[in-house]
Structure prediction request, 302 residues.
Amino acid sequence: MDELADLTAFLTVAREGGFRSAARVAGSSASRMGDAVRRLEARLGVRLLHRTTRSVTPTDAGARLLERLTPALGEVRSALDVVNDFRDRPAGRLRLNVPIAAARLVLPSIVPPFLAKYPDIRLEVIAEERLVDVVAEGYDAGIRYEERLAQDMVAVPIGPRVQRFAAAASPAYLARRGRPRHPRELLDHDCLGGRFTNGPLHAWEFERNGVTLHVDPKGPLIVGLGTTTDLAVAAAVAGTGIIYDFEDWLRPFIDRGELEPVLESWWPSFSGPVLYYPGRRHLPAPLRAFIDFVKSMRPRRG
Prediction:
């Protein structure tokens, strides 16, 4: 069991790219994670990780071990999880990888009642915008929108089934610059743009009566989508420009009068997010419980 723990520590450190981040994931300390990797290297007689002050990366030997170890430890966890079938209620860890918008807009209505119902489950949610391989990176499941979903995944609807993108601006900005009546008029306005990490500037899409228009926003501020959306919202409320984002993200500010809808008849709708996981014969009991719980909940809107 000690060797299994050391192998798990190595896998976590290699996957997270550092001892501190691995310790946070494992609920341990960086020194303990380091001791575990050193013990494993001593037993095997080979260095598994390159360590620098900035990063930790697998050696060639470590990469080969990691390649074989990832599915093997997954099988071990699945085997141990079979015992969950004999418990009165499921227990164990459930790791989810989700977009920041889902962590902000979807999970708050789901997670608290789920954890109240299953107090022996420890839920870990990692929110980020990059597309990840949930299996290779040690997650049980993820949340994504269907157009960004791998075809070999099982998908379960989660949260609102229909969402909209919305454009809005502060009353002060609209009083100063006027209200656009058509999406093309946005080219004459200060727009608060966004982009995914290392991606192109996100085009704003509008739709009405079967007509779809795309506008490349120009303005004084560009933020990382999801990661710094709150900054763009604050700038919009302060009158810096027009913002375009999930309606649910902007709705509280619209309802309070801090922002006003812009081009509302052109707001495009799209399908809501899905919970996805690899199709396999044995699902871990915590994931199975979460899937059943999500299915039992009615969508909040739409």
In short: Residues 281 and 288 are 12 Å apart (CA to CA).
